[in-house]
Write a structure and sequence with these properties.
- The strands form 3 sheets. The protein has an 18-stranded antiparallel β-barrel. Strands 4-5-6-8-7-3-9-1-2-12-11-10 form a 12-stranded mixed β-sheet, with no helix packed on it.
- Among the domains are: about 140 residues, OB fold (Dihydrolipoamide Acetyltransferase, E2P), CATH 2.40.50.320; about 100 residues, no CATH class; about 180 residues, Beta Barrel (Porin), CATH 2.40.160.100.
- The chain contains 2 helices and 37 strands.
- A hairpin with a 4-residue loop joins strand 4 and strand 5.
- By secondary structure, it is mostly beta strands.
- The two termini are about 45 Å apart.
């Protein structure tokens, strides 16, 4: 059994050894010349020049492509300015996947983030061939062919892409791009969602402030699955989040996120409030950590403090944890991660206050669209239950093709739980196919997941798979809105269950998406229990049938109205199967509305 002090000491020695042992930069100097195609990540300076954080040489030259915010517009000649470059927008400019809304110059606004593919004439005149307004990432980027180079190997140096000046400093990574890795590993320090950097308030050169207001409202009906017991439940939870990101130096950044929230409940239910009630007002620092990078562009970083730990589909993690996380990405695109999550200051009401976890991962991140993992997660539990699982697993999430987004999770569970050895397994595989070139972007999703069940509760070995306890099982398919991808109403843990998922969706407007998702549920092995938000006593399976039922979800998402307002609505209908017969035959219905306003 792991001792906490020994674990901390071992992890510290491991981290220090890796930190001091890395002394070589990754790869030889990337020699650039005029005519080379490059991809430049960086930011637009107030001094009127694009400052490069990384420069990656492309296999071939290409026409300019810019990702960033529109600085200003000129309606007289239908032109926009990005990174100081004026470009014409004509009737020939394409606005892909814009839905039924009108495209064209009239849809553009200062501050709007776009991705512009451009043609440049021999006279140096820029014209926008395509302007993409959909799901634009927060990081600024320029692609194109070098037309002028001014390098003396004593930074600062400059290069130009058809007149667009780019500044190369001592901090610029010229040894191959690592920016996409850092974005994937650390996200955007200015936003919890790892997404938007607009709107925000900048104070000086080092501090960035942002925040949002969120409200989640749930309407639950017939969660007893019975017409005999009265069952109507409502809850709403307003929450305010305030964020501050400090960029003190290229090697040191910090992030603080505060949350204020209060929950109100209304309803009639045997074991839920029968009158209007509310929780105490909560004020918590849900994130407070430092990100430290090794100097001189070495691929080594350390995060220390309370931080949001999550994976792309939130199948292993989506939780705010105390942690020390070491990343070695000098071996890019292979990334080595060693993390320790001690339960020092757990958030109020969390069940994992007795857990200490060690996570080791080998991550393959070839680009910003794909990631594959091999991992081991081991837990020490000081509770009397002594739940000490060990997970061995592989995972993949990404876009192998532009029209396909796929995922794979496979895990073996070992260790002990309640003095029983664990020998269980689970997997989840699926893909979403989207017709990205059609205006409404129709999509189709197919998935299958299985968590093994226990053969017998009376022996010393359990075959029932249990997820980590940190999971949220939340994601999205073809739309903008996140939802519980195993079902909003039943919302089961992947334990002793088989789930078949079929979904379809479309985007009627560039800011609006709609999805319909259907699930069927069966137990892997007969049991009179289901690990689920919905299935709680007295609602239990009869242990005679594996058929748990089916569920239909409808999800509508609206994003970035005026760059600030986001909405998500879901309707869920759960139909109980033969496992709940003959007493539990009523359909459970859930309506959920999420609102988020960014500032």
């Amino acid at each position: 059994m792991l001792n906490r002090n020994r674990t901390i000491l071992w992890f510290s020695v491991f981290a220090l050894t890796l930190w001091l042992g890395k002394s070589l930069r990754a790869g030889p100097y990337t020699k650039l010349k005029e005519g080379d195609g490059v991809e430049v990540s960086g930011s637009w300076s107030a001094k009127g020049i694009f400052v490069a954080k990384s420069v990656e040489k492309l296999k071939e030259a290409r026409r300019p492509k810019l990702r960033g915010a529109i600085e200003r517009l000129d309606s007289k000649d239908s032109s926009i300015v990005m990174f100081g470059m004026k470009m014409a927008v004509s009737s020939k400019t394409l606005f892909p996947a814009r839905g039924t809304g009108a495209g064209g110059f009239g849809t553009l606004k200062p501050g709007m983030r776009v991705e512009a593919t451009c043609n440049v004439s021999a006279a140096g005149v820029w014209e926008a061939d395509k302007l993409d307004l959909n799901e634009i990432k927060p990081s600024d980027k320029i692609k194109g062919a070098i037309t002028r180079l001014s390098f003396d190997n004593r930074p600062p140096d400059t290069l130009e892409i058809s007149g667009l000046k780019i500044l190369v400093t001592e901090e610029t990574d010229l040894y191959g791009s690592i920016r996409y890795l850092e974005e994937e590993l650390f996200g955007n320090l200015s936003a919890d969602e790892g997404g938007t950097n607009f709107p925000h308030l900048k104070l000086g050169e080092h501090l960035l402030f942002s925040g949002d207001y969120r409200q989640t409202t749930r309407f639950e009906n017939s969660y007893t699955l019975s017409d005999i017991q009265e069952d109507r439940y409502r809850e709403t939870e307003p929450a305010l989040r305030l964020e501050a990101a400090g960029h003190w130096a290229p090697e040191a950044q910090g992030f603080l996120q505060l949350r204020i929230r209060k929950k109100y409940t209304f309803g009639t239910f045997d074991y839920r409030p029968t009158t209007v009630e509310s929780t105490d007002l909560e004020f918590q620092a849900i994130q407070a950590y430092l990100l430290l990078r090794a100097p001189q562009s070495r691929g080594l970083a350390l995060t220390v403090g309370k931080q949001r730990v999550r994976d792309p589909r939130e199948w292993l993690f989506d939780e705010y944890l105390d942690g020390v996380r070491l990343y070695v990405y000098e071996t890019r695109p292979v990334v080595l991660e060693a993390s320790f999550f001690p339960s020092l200051f757990p958030l109020k009401g969390k069940k994992f206050k007795t857990w200490d976890d060690l996570l080791f991962r080998v991550r393959f991140i070839p680009d910003d669209k794909n990631e594959a993992n091999i991992y081991m997660l081991k837990r020490r539990d000081s509770d009397l239950r002594n739940r000490e699982p060990v997970y061995w697993g592989i995972s993949y999430y990404g876009r192998p093709k532009r029209f396909v987004t796929g995922w794979l999770q496979a895990s073996l569970l070992r260790g002990t739980d309640k003095q029983r050895d664990q020998e269980a397994h689970a997997f989840d595989i699926g893909a979403t196919f989207a017709a990205i070139n059609l205006p409404i972007r129709p999509s189709f999703t197919l998935g299958y997941a299985l968590g093994s069940g226990d053969k017998s509760s009376g022996d010393t070995v359990s075959q029932e798979f249990r997820q980590t306890g940190y999971e949220d099982n939340s994601g999205r398919f073809g739309g903008f809105a996140n939802f519980q991808y195993y079902g909003e109403a039943l919302n089961p843990e992947l334990a002793n269950i088989q789930i078949l998922t079929v979904g379809a969706g479309f985007r009627p407007h560039r800011l609006v998406s709609a999805d319909a998702v259907f699930h069927t549920y069966r137990q892997h092995r007969l049991d009179n229990d289901v690990q689920s938000d919905l299935i709680t006593p007295p609602v239990l399976p009869n242990g005679l049938s594996k058929d748990l039922g089916w569920e239909l979800n409808a999800i509508v998402g609206v994003q970035k109205i005026w760059q600030r307002f986001n909405f998500a609505y879901s309707f869920s209908w759960f139909n109980p199967g033969e496992a709940f017969m003959p007493l539990r035959t009523e359909n459970a219905v859930l309506n959920r509305l999420n609102v988020r306003v960014e500032f």
